[in-house]
Design a protein that fits this description.
By secondary structure, the protein is α/β, with parallel strands linked by helices. The protein has helices at about 25-35, 100-110, 150-165, 220-230, 245-250, 265-280, 290-295, 320-325, 340-350, and strands at about 60-65, 75-80, 85-90, 125-135, 140-145, 170-175, 190-195, 195-200, 205-210, 235-240, 255-265, 285-290, 305-310, 330-335, 355-360, 370-380. A seven-stranded mixed sheet has the order 3-2-1-4-5-6-7. A seven-stranded mixed sheet has the order 12-11-10-13-14-16-15, with helices on both faces. The longest helix is centred in the first third of the chain and has 15 residues, at about 25-35.
């Protein structure tokens, strides 16, 4: 498959580093990357599963407001390798095409109505970030403004204009005076509409609040979840760690005897329970708490056939991996999006009675170096 579209800010924007490669070459790059990261195990990896779509696949983008050299408000992405330099963007080849008009509308409104953009050095200015989440099923959106101070009334007129002119399910506001250069979303206030989307992965429907984790490539997530489900044996008792909004738990439940999901964020556990009910799934349960602490408090005779873990990019810790081994499941399915601590995590299990059965890369992030990998471990 050839790359046929061009990005006008490729090489300036720091987001997409593989746009200059054909998609076939991108897949080869990622296969080689995974093979190199796991080379110590001297095992072949399975051919990478490609994304069904290469462009406009992301269901979530974050943009930053900034001050341009001509003293206007810009809205875009960080320049490659630069902390304080940004580049204006409207149409992004990762984002749904319908977002381009919304981004331009907001940028023009901010300039026309004399809003101010946050300055990272002086820590002054109102507008910090814009978050857009998309439901591919309903072709609808959530728009969230993240500001440095201000109030909901400051953005009310803009929110209503967006809500009335575009297909948007909700517009929200979050105040973030913290210095951290990242979207935190500690609290969101609804300006109009609602604070969640409804979308589907495969045949399953999920409620997605604005601050909930959801796989960024909805189409490829179906392939990821299908593969995980394929690995689960019929009638298994499954433990799903770092379960988030319960998407994997719900997706595999009809093949399992039972699924217990554990997640540190209380609100995510509430949504996980809702998502199972939404899909008429009755054999899942969810508990809130830190994974390591929940595992430590489990009785040693607690039985699970399969443990699935999909930890954050940084992986997890040695105590968590050791406790998984002590539960003595016949299978551990590790879903990795980061590789810094992956070998460290896997080695804890492989020092015991586990071996790697298969390594399956899946491309959820076309045109970027990132790749998801599912490692299936079985008892020796």
């Amino acid at each position: 498959m050839e790359i046929s579209k061009t990005c006008p800010i490729f090489g300036v924007c720091g987001g997409c580093k593989l746009y200059n490669l054909t998609y076939d070459d991108q897949l080869k790059f990622k296969e080689d990357f995974v093979q190199n990261k796991l080379k110590r195990y001297d095992l072949p990896i399975l051919p990478i599963i490609p994304s069904p779509i290469v462009y406009h696949y992301r269901n979530k983008i974050e943009l930053t407001f900034f001050n341009t050299e001509d003293k206007k408000i810009g809205l875009g992405f960080h320049q490659k390798g630069e902390f304080n330099k940004l580049v204006n963007v409207s149409a992004c080849l990762h984002s749904p095409e319908s977002n381009a008009d919304i981004i331009e509308f907001i940028r023009q409104w901010a300039n026309k109505h004399s809003f101010s953009a946050y300055h990272k050095i002086t820590k002054q200015g109102l507008l910090r970030y814009l978050l857009i989440r998309d439901s591919f099923k309903n072709q609808s959106k959530l728009i969230t403004f993240i500001t440095n101070g201000g109030s909901s009334e400051t953005l009310k007129e803009l929110a209503l204009a967006l809500y009335n002119n575009f297909k948007i399910d909700g517009v929200l506001w979050s105040n973030q005076p913290e210095i951290a250069d990242a979207v935190l979303l500690t609290h969101c206030e609804i300006l109009c509409g609602k604070d969640y989307l409804i979308d589907t992965i495969g045949d399953y429907t999920f409620k997605i609040p604005v601050n909930s984790f959801f796989q960024g490539n909805t189409a490829a997530a179906t392939l990821l979840y299908d593969y995980i489900k394929q690995l689960v044996q019929s009638g298994d008792e499954v433990l799903d760690l770092f379960c988030g909004a319960g998407t994997i738990s719900t997706y595999i439940a009809d093949k399992a005897k039972s699924v217990l999901g554990i997640e540190v964020v209380d609100s995510a556990v509430d949504i996980a329970q809702e998502n199972s009910k939404l899909n008429h799934v009755q054999n899942t349960s969810f508990e809130a708490g830190r994974v390591r602490e929940r595992l430590a408090n489990m009785k040693f005779d607690t039985h699970f056939d399969t443990v699935i873990l999909d930890p954050p990019r940084a992986g997890t810790d040695k105590k968590t991996m050791r406790r998984i081994g002590e539960l003595n499941p016949k299978q551990v399915i590790y879903v990795a999006c980061g590789y810094e601590n992956l070998v460290y995590n896997l080695n804890v299990l492989m020092e015991g009675p586990y071996r790697i059965e298969s390594i399956q890369p899946i491309d959820l992030f076309p045109n970027t170096p990132h790749v998801e990998t599912v490692i299936n471990l079985l008892k020796k």
